[in-house]
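Continuing the series of single-chain predictions for the mutant panel. This is the parent chain; the variants come on the following pages.
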Amino acid sequence: MAFRRGWIGLVLVLAVGCATPRALCPREGGDTWTEVQSRHFRVRTNLRPAAAAETARELELLRRALLFAWGPDFAPEDFVDVVILRDLKELSEFTQGHFSGHKRATDRGSLLILSGHDDVPGRKPSLQLQAHELTHHLSDYVLLHRPKWLSEGLAGYLETVELTPDGSQAILGRPSPWNLERVREDGWLDLDALWDWDGKSVTDPDAQARYYASAWLWVHYLINKHPSRFDAFQALLARAESPRRAWKSVFGDGADLKEGLGAYVASGLYAVLTQPLPPIPTELASRELDSAEIHAIRGLLYFKAGGVMSYVERLEKARAEVEQGLREDPTNVSAAVLAAQVYADNDEHLERARALVKAHPDSGSAWDLLAVYLDASAEPELVAQARQSAARLLPLNARVQQNLARHHLSKGRLEEGLTVARRAVALAPDNLLGHVLQAEALFRLERCPEAVAHQRRAVALLTGIHPEPFRKQTRSILKSYEAKCGEAVKTTPP
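Parent structure:
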């Protein structure tokens, strides 16, 4: 989810103008890079170390504040990778000037890609930018399906959060001045147009701004004037209901909403919430990053950041960074993991993974890479060790937990597999594979109603991005569970 607002024209000029500064490693003339790790974030950046630490603390405060948007008991077990470059000019090398912030999915979970402050290069990202992208991340745990207008509208609503200087309070719900000005001057899109935003390519900066402002307005209006119905709508999305079906069941045709929206815009009366914040984790661990790690980060940015660069060119540039990183340190874990994604040479990856776990026995990513490329029939004990070590060292990585659950089930250890599958679902409720594994464990334990419920949830999470054979198989498994479990489970809610 990209943060685009307010700076689009500036960035496009940067992208098409003269050569821009690049985020290089120190030996190539770049700045020192730092990694700062807090309870819920790993920040890797070429900001000054003090700014990196300040950003990590601020992200923890923001996370705590934004959680209240979904109630006082919302507390996901999450961990987020964050990469921050000094400014928009440096970020444009990877994004071609298309955004200053973006949330992407990786094998480790969410990746937030941010630029430093718009006005002062080298300063931490704006609170607005951090809050916008962090909202997209947290929404994954609650809104298992969400249309783009809701996703961007919520991010726009929560990006105006303010923190008191001592971090003891958060102020939520202030109207976005730029969005409010936009809709007052130029009007807004109706919901029919916003529903069609999904899958639609909107490249004109002015049109983009209108979509974002309209999405913000509708969400702000619903939260302020129709909170109970909006909560009910979100509750259905949390159960993986189809967004349009969920909307219709709560709001009908929405005719009554349109009648009050104009008066709401003109009124200037908007609810603002001041929320006390409990203490947050304050312990930070910092280290300076070496050149191999920096090349791995640059490769990751080319591979994941997005923009208009073709996939082939992006892949070539990512490979070049990976190769340089591995030349400088053949046992750099980040470079080796990325190499496995941009190359398909299994033998080379296996040999490298064996070396990695010897050099870094405390690296969950190294053990995970080894488990992926080992031959389970030739080295079953080492596969088991690798799966268990990866899961122990990466307890918040849903994919790693899924792999361990699958391993337990393949060995007939059903209760162990069920326990780990449940953890995988808790870590990534929007990932259907966790539900599939949990359903399999429950079915084999002859707990039919629960098995059917979780397989139904998996089917509900299918989207167009899943290959048709996989969608067909997932639905087929559900039919087999329902057939073997009997008529009694056919009305079991997900």
